[in-house]
């Protein structure tokens, strides 16, 4: 019993690792902010293309969405980080992670937005166009507000997944939370920093997870 | 075009519509004068909705021409089409209010975004129109808090607020509980008295008798017979109209 506490819940080691892990948590937060925003905007753009009336816009969007939902994000990240130098582009780890996440997250967010848009009755668009609104105005003021409201729980769930997924950035030596914890573990020969990292993720995500489950409960009650 | 007569408010000329192989409208000609209420009847699938939807190009006509106050609806750039649509109000069977906006915002949205009216002016106009349909006190209600009849009246106010030259009604009362039909018909009667030009597709024959200037009977994508309500209901000529009327009155009895 003592050995388990010593190896995983060692307060002294955690105290030593705290500055490093807080720094890592800060990098994770910044990374999350950037990749979530990129993914949301990329996904929204893709979803609008995928919902468009023109097949010339729709098809490439669907191909993009399918491809990047199927490629494991870890492989994508390594390919981008290791591959770009071969075509003469050298990018810092942070940028490589942003590119990989943009490709992957946009595809996932696009699917969510698209299902939201698809669920809005056709009459909404027709009513809007019949009152002289342009296609873009009808999307902006009539369709998207309803679509986004309907898929808000799915968007938030995806945000939770993304936050957790940012830990793969450690493979390209970006000093985010997992990388920092792993480093502390290597130096101290003790797993307590990893437990602490898990605790920090929990602290970060727990409020979000609560909000989502409240949403879902609210939905199932109102239905 | 005859020079002596004033321009029709809505002019449908040789309108054809095909969905793939199915010919839904065959050479429809219909002129609606300023202030006239044209009532359209016909069996299910005869093309009534399609004709209305061609008038504001929710459906793309296969051939023919549509003019509103002499200006073409077809063969114009999209921006011009958006402007022309402001002149053609449409009321749907399913209301299609925007569920995320209050009644007031439903009525101001297109005024603000399409007509570019300033907020104060758009809101004043919206309240005026909501008052006209008897729902000024519901301005801040969400559509989900309104009865079907109230929703349909807000939808009418939404179209009216854009100052259309003609209003198209596609079975405006068919989705309503019987006790709510009267309130919507009353609004339509008021509109007619105010001189609005209207095409109404509906099964409310009593309303047609009282309020229509002209009744048009469609079947199989053509206008089979048209005339004043007394003639159409009292003295139908074609067998198809006779059969339709006896079927409808049989249902009503
Ligand atoms: N988008 C479409 N694609 C294919 N066929 C269509 C489409 N819309 C309408 N139709 C067909 O066109 C015909 C006329 O339809 P329309 O809705 O205009 O009839 P209607 O007179 O309004 O009938 P109802 O009284 O049932 O509303 C029908 O046979 C219908 O199946
Ligand atoms: Mg119809």
TrEMBL record, chain A:
It is found in: Cell inner membrane; Cell membrane. CDD domains: TM_PBP2 (cd06261). It comes from Pseudooceanicola marinus. The chain crosses the membrane at residues 24-49, 61-82, 94-113, 194-213. It is a multi-pass membrane protein. Part of the binding-protein-dependent transport system for glutamine; probably responsible for the translocation of the substrate across the membrane. The gene is yecS_3. This is Inner membrane amino-acid ABC transporter permease protein YecS. Belongs to the binding-protein-dependent transport system permease family. HisMQ subfamily. PANTHER family: GLUTAMINE TRANSPORT SYSTEM PERMEASE PROTEIN GLNP, MEMBRANE COMPONENT OF AMINO ACID ABC TRANSPORTER.
TrEMBL record, chain B:
Residues 10-245 form the ABC transporter domain. It holds the Pfam family ABC_tran. Signal peptide: none annotated. Belongs to the ABC transporter superfamily. The keyword Amino-acid biosynthesis does not apply. It comes from Pseudooceanicola marinus. One of its GO terms (molecular function) is ATP binding. Gene3D superfamilies: P-loop containing nucleotide triphosphate hydrolases. GO terms for cellular component: plasma membrane. This is Glutamine transport ATP-binding protein GlnQ. Keywords: Amino-acid transport, ATP-binding, Cell membrane, Membrane, Nucleotide-binding, Transport. It is a peripheral membrane protein. It is found in: Cell membrane.
């Amino acid at each position: 019993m003592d050995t388990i506490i010593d190896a995983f819940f060692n307060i002294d080691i955690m105290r030593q690792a705290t500055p490093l892990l807080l720094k890592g948590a800060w990098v994770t937060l910044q990374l999350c902010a950037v990749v979530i925003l990129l993914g949301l905007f990329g996904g929204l753009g893709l979803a609008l293309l995928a919902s468009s009336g023109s097949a010339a816009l729709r098809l490439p969007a669907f191909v993009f969405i399918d491809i990047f939902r199927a490629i494991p994000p870890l492989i994508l990240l390594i390919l981008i980080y290791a591959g770009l130098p071969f075509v003469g582009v050298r990018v810092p780890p942070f940028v490589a992670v942003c590119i990989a996440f943009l490709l992957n997250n946009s595809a996932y967010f696009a699917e969510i937005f698209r299902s939201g848009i698809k669920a809005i009755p056709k009459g909404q668009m027709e009513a809007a166009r019949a009152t002289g609104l342009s296609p873009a105005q009808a999307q902006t003021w009539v369709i998207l507000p309803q679509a986004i409201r309907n898929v808000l729980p799915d968007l938030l769930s995806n945000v939770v997944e993304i936050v957790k997924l940012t830990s793969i950035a450690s493979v390209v030596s970006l000093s985010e939370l997992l990388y920092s914890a792993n480093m502390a573990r290597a130096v101290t020969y003790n797993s307590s920093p990893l437990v602490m990292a898990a605790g920090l993720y929990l602290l970060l995500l727990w409020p979000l997870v609560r909000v989502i489950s409240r949403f879902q409960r609210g939905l199932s009650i109102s239905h | 075009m005859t020079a002596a007569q004033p321009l029709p408010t809505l002019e449908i000329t040789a309108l054809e519509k095909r969905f793939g192989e199915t010919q839904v409208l065959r050479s429809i000609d219909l002129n609606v004068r300023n202030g006239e209420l044209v009532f359209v009847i016909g069996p299910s699938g005869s093309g009534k909705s399609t004709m209305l939807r061609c008038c504001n190009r929710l459906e793309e006509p296969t051939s023919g021409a549509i003019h509103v106050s002499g200006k073409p609806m077809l063969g114009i750039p999209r921006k011009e089409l958006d402007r022309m649509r402001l002149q053609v109000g449409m009321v749907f069977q399913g209301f299609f209010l925007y569920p995320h906006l209050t009644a007031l915002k439903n009525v101001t949205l297109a005024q603000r975004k399409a007509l570019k009216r300033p907020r104060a002016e758009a809101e004043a106009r919206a309240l005026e129109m909501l008052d006209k349909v008897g729902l000024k006190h519901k301005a801040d209600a969400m559509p989900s808090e309104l009865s079907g009849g109230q929703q349909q009246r807000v939808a009418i106010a939404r179209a009216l607020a854009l100052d259309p030259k003609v209003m198209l009604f596609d079975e405006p009362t068919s989705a309503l509980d019987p006790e709510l039909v009267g309130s919507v018909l009353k609004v339509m009667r008021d509109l007619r008295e105010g001189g609005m030009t209207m095409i109404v597709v509906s099964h409310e024959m009593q309303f047609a008798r009282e309020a229509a200037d002209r009744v048009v009977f469609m079947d199989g994508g053509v206008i089979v017979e048209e005339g004043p309500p007394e003639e159409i209901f009292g003295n139908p000529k074609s067998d198809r109209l006779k059969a339709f009327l006896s079927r409808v009155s049989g249902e009503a009895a």
